[in-house]
Amino acid sequence: MNERLMPAGVAAVALCLAILLSAAPAGATPPVQGIGEGEGVVDIVAWPGYIERGDTDPAFDWVTDYEAKTGCKVRIKTANTSDEMVALMNQGGFDLVTASGDASLRLIAGGRVQEVNIDLVPSWSKVDPRLHNAPWHTVGGQHYGVPYQWGSNVLMYNTDVFPEPPTSWDVVFTEMTLPDGKSNKGRVQAFDGAIYIADAALFLKAHKPELGIDDPYALDKDQYAAALALLREQRQIVNRYWHDAFVQIDDFTNEGVAASSSWPFQVNILQSDNQPIASVLPEEGATGWSDTTMMHSDAPHPNCAYMWLEHSINPKLQGDLAAWFGSVPVRLDACKGNELLGDEGCEVNGLGNFEKTSFWKTPVANCGGGRTCVPYYRWVSDYIAVLGGR
């Protein structure tokens, strides 16, 4: 399911999300109490580039050794957006999903994922303590997944256009002349997902303090209206709303795109191809992801799934994945002694940006402090309207 849903489906999506976000965790599936013999396969829904078996680059392979050790063949279904991940998990038939915070709470509330027995994940104690009880996977003291990687949504730019790094997200939000003397109109991109409204809110938090925005995912009606107005303004200069990482890579290579929000994954791929590309975390900060491997409530291969949960946080995998994707490991001992990542790799990838990153989470109506905020189903329908020029 692409986040560019047809307008006729908006009402159904809105109703579904309203039900899920108002529900308490279903808790129907008790946590597994022991791991038996592997079932021979594990099916995982994952972001592009998150699970590599050496097909793209032989140096990056954290699947082959798992398969050899466990006898469980890894089958991967790539998803380009959080909404697509939720749709696939609702469909069923998968064991695990690498869910970001704007999907994880929906999956928990909808009973689509089960509590994880951390006693069956021996390396849990090695996970960064800041992530042990993160609110995007921990509800009521119960853990519904194992942290996987985290990072920031960076501002990727063409260094031929920007001899010096841009300092603000304004280069993708407001029409202007770029350092090469040409307009940014038709040369910038934005993310094709409703959660991108938070990026606009984060920009306004810095530039319009009178709006009183504190949390870019908890917006009252006036704050939300201001964010939509900025996105409608941005619509006039965007050449493409991206959701496919490889399409964005091609656009920066062949279509003259100068700047966009992006993932470090695209930056790394383009730089490895000697393209004039760099990235920066602008002065306003950034949104970002802290992803969790979650287990379907009806996982058909629970033993192989638990074996993967443990495998997913071993230091070699964590360091290799961070080197490949440009993300940060969830266990800090993976930051040293990894040949692919290098001892400075975690710092380069943004280890110090944890406090500067507003991690994705699902917007809800009851946003605390007696405030009423605009819930996520509204974000979905309104962002579709923005994409359609309305």
Give the topology, please.
Elements: H1 10-22, E1 41-46, H2 64-70, E2 73-78, H3 82-91, E3 96-99, H4 101-109, H5 129-132, E4 138-139, E5 142-143, E6 146-152, E7 154-158, H6 170-173, E8 188-191, H7 197-207, H8 221-235, E9 238-242, H9 245-254, E10 259-262, H10 264-272, E11 277-280, E12 286-295, H11 302-311, H12 315-325, E13 328-329, H13 345-348, E14 357-359, H14 376-387
Parallel strand pairs: 1-2, 1-3, 8-9, 8-10, 12-14
Antiparallel strand pairs: 3-12, 4-5, 6-12, 6-13, 7-10, 7-11
Helix pairs in contact: 1-4, 1-14, 3-4, 7-8, 8-14, 9-10
Explain what the structure shows.
It is a single chain. The protein is α/β, with parallel strands linked by helices. The chain folds into two domains: 201 residues, D-Maltodextrin-Binding Protein, domain 2 (3-Layer(aba) Sandwich), CATH 3.40.190; 160 residues, 3-Layer(aba) Sandwich (D-Maltodextrin-Binding Protein, domain 2), CATH 3.40.190.10. Helix content is 33%, strand content 16%. The protein has 14 helices and 14 strands. The strands form three sheets. Strands 1, 2, 3, 6, 12, 13 and 14 form a seven-stranded mixed sheet that branches. The chain has a five-stranded mixed sheet with strand order 9-8-10-7-11, with helices on one face. Helix 1 packs across helix 4, helix 3 runs parallel beside helix 4 and helix 7 packs across helix 8. The two termini are 22 Å apart. 50% of the residues are buried. The N terminus is likely disordered.
